[in-house]
Amino acid sequence: MPDQVPSKPPKAEPGLVAAGVYAKGKRIADIAVDEAGKWQKKAGHVVWIGLFEPGPELLSRVQQQLNLHPLAIEDAEKAHQHPKIDEYGDALFIVARTAQMVSGKIAFGETHLFVGHGYVVSVRHGASASYSTVRQHCESCPKALSHGEDYILYKILDIVVDNYMPVVEAVRKEVEELEDRVLHETIGTRQVQRLYALRRELLKLRNAVVPLVDICRRLEHADLLPVDVEMRSHFRDVTEEVIDSLREVLAFAFEASLMMGQAQQSAINRMLAAWAAILAVPTALAGIYGMNFDNMPELKWQYGYFVILALILALCGFLYYRFKRNDWL
User: Fold this and answer.
1) CATH of domain 263-325
2) DSSP summary character for residue 26
């Protein structure tokens, strides 16, 4: 006789996003955390628990129910872990970095995954999209979900990587706009600073993505439990697209930064040349009338001093106007 779905859903609690149990690719019940161990022990059943910034008490209850390793729980309580994959007996603990665009900047978060026979627990910290869409997609594909925890792990890692793409595309667009500005107008200090900030953020993103490539390779090739042979090939293509896009955008950023550096240097050289030309006018006139010759008719002229001052101001003003009009100043 099949297990019956509870008459009413479990009471919501802080830090718990969702908790369900699946069998033969179908969701059969929404469960409370304290029921997870009972369902996980049933053959052919998979418990899937989603947590967002849970407290120590909730994590401790999950640990007791699913017999999670204390070291993995200790790591999951902290939100500043490096991407990695650890084996604890027949279970895996995976840390993946997540990224989102927040107010025009890349915000980073983390997803910690506990995967073992009959269970998957995801723990999100910081900037991270909800994995409700992953649940919906998995539940819409019962045949694929029948692979159990292996397929759930694959889909979570896949959505983590998919969420990198909007970030990469947003940065690509901004870099291209800055690159176009270099070609058509004089850039300012703010644009240069923004480009270098984008480069730093891209390098941080690369540091998040590259370890995930190694994690997927280990899941594909190593004899890691609980991943079975049929599912290992799915991890091969998880990160390829984002790595290629990231390399391309990084190349754009470095090329644009070189162009900006050259444009900035050219702007400085033009400015120095313009001021040198303006200052050359009073220097030349003052040098001429500073010579000690007797036969200089302007020296005896009553209005000579004022005329020369007016001439200097007029010539300097004209040069300043022309240089300013041509964006040299």
Assistant:
1) 1.20.58
2) E
The residue extents of the domains of the chain are 16-164, 263-325
pTM: 0.70
Secondary structure letter of residue 20 according to DSSP = E
Q: What is the pLDDT of residues 210-244, one digit of tens each?
A: 888 788 777 776 555 555 555 555 555 555 566 66
In the block, residue with structure tokens 């293509």: 237
CB 298 within 8 A of CB 216: no
**Do residues 30 and 10 lie in contact, with contact meaning Cβ atoms separated by under 8 Å?**
yes
Residue 51: which of 118, 107, 128 has the closest Cα? 128
Strands of 84-88's sheet, edge to edge? Answer: 26-30, 16-23, 45-52, 119-126, 105-116, 91-102, 84-88
Assigned token pair, 10: 């479990």
- The domain made up of 16-164 has a fold known as Beta Polymerase; domain 2 (3.30.460)
Could you report the per-residue pLDDT of 176-198, keeping only the tens digit for each?
Answer: 777 777 666 656 667 777 777 77
End-to-end CA distance of the chain: 85
